[in-house]
Amino acid sequence: MSTSIVFVGGGNMATSLISGLRNADWSGDCITVIEPDADKGQQLAAGYAVNTVTSANDRTLDADVIVLAVKPQMLREVCEGLVEPLGDRKPLIVSIAAGVPIAGLREWLGADHAYVRCMPNTPSLIGAGATGIYADDAVTDDQRTLADSILKTAGMTAWVAEESLLDAVTATSGSGPAYFFAFMEAMQAGAIELGLDETTARELVLHTALGAARMAIESGDDPSTLREKVTSPGGTTAAALDQYAAGDLNALVARAMEAAASRADSLATELLDK
User: Fold this and answer.
1) Is Amino-acid biosynthesis tagged as a keyword (predicted)?
2) Annotated binding residue at 40?
3) Which of 22, 108, 170, 211 has its CA 20 to 30 A from that of 193?
4) Residue 70 marked in a binding site
5) What is the mean pLDDT of each run of 10 residues along the chain (274 residues)?
6) How many Å apart are CA 243 and CA 80, to the nearest integer?
């Protein structure tokens, strides 16, 4: 690919995208990472054969796409520092900084850029991510396709029609891996309580989770259909699921996701008010 991309920040999420791009045969010559930590920059250069610099200037920002990949608390300062070296150039701006709305980016970086905001999750680090994406009205169809092709290198993508829906994405896929980790943790503890040793419990739980996810993805059936297929009336699975129903699992999950979405909204307000 000849599209030039600049990553502002070389942390885990940026690294996952850089790895995905290189595995998808994007040229390392077209990828530049602005990373103030020189040691981290050297590691990226050595590991992925990309260009790295410690600070931005008008030459490094001469790119088709700029990916903002810094911590949300740092983003205002970083954006304001990019304004002068960017000059009159108008690259596509892709932000993977959680919780920072496009309104903030417009205020700090400029109102007349085309902005894409996305919410990746941690499995992106192994190429198995799920990323929700929103594009503002200034983004062209070609830029939308370009953003999708970049983000797809770390996993699947899903576009939302309204920026506010990224809070729902955060509550679903952004925070979602931790929900499954917590459930696996509880299952492992339950297996140990029933007498299995820790290693056996862990392996059985993790591979059961993997198998269930693969069945849900590959079968084409929705989870409720799959649940019904493996639940015999009066059987062991039904006995376990009856306990979930008694504890109102659906309502508990809904409350948890609402709490995550609400917190995402309040964090955005806090960041803009600073």
Assistant:
1) yes
2) no
3) 211
4) yes
5) 89 92 91 94 95 89 94 91 92 92 93 94 92 96 96 96 95 96 98 98 98 95 96 95 96 96 85 72
6) 54
